Amino acid sequence: MSSDTIKVAVNGAAGRMGQRVTALTHSDSELVLAAALEASDSPALGRDAGEIAGIGSIGVPITAELGDHVDVVIDFSMPAGLAKIAEVCGQREIALVAATTGLTKEQQAIVDTAAQTAPVVLAPNMSLAVNLTMKLVREAAKILKNVESGVDVEIIERHHRFKEDAPSG
Q1: Residue 163 known to be catalytic
Q2: Which of 7, 84, 142, 159 is the catalytic position?
Q3: Is 4 in contact with 29 (CB distance < 8 Å)?
Q4: Which of 39, 72, 154, 156 lies most in the core, judged by the most C-beta atoms within 10 Å?
């Protein structure tokens, strides 16, 4: 591992997106998976993160606590998990990229506090389809704002059957 390798921790490592981030991190020569995290009651604790991600053993056990020597945490957990790791990241000045939705005001305040001392990116949805939809809605709004007859809009949220926190926060 070179000195400019980025040491990544994945919070929510046993979830679908956490597994994908684990696999992508492991396959990138500029990154190293330094930690894989789950809630303290997760049945995945102690298991190898690579095994759970379907890439074979990589020697990184899933734990409930963030160890030392981490440059960035990528969070695809649940609101309580994000609040917990955001507090740690703020205290240790560790960068945080979070994609968790459904935060309470208190949990959002914890993330906001962390952002005062550590770099924080809160992007509640990293899905290509959702980001494309948001762009298309902005374009439609520009066009429809000049329509005099009035326009009714209905928003329907649908997810794949594996999404645990549907509807999203």
Answers
A1: yes
A2: 159
A3: no
A4: 72
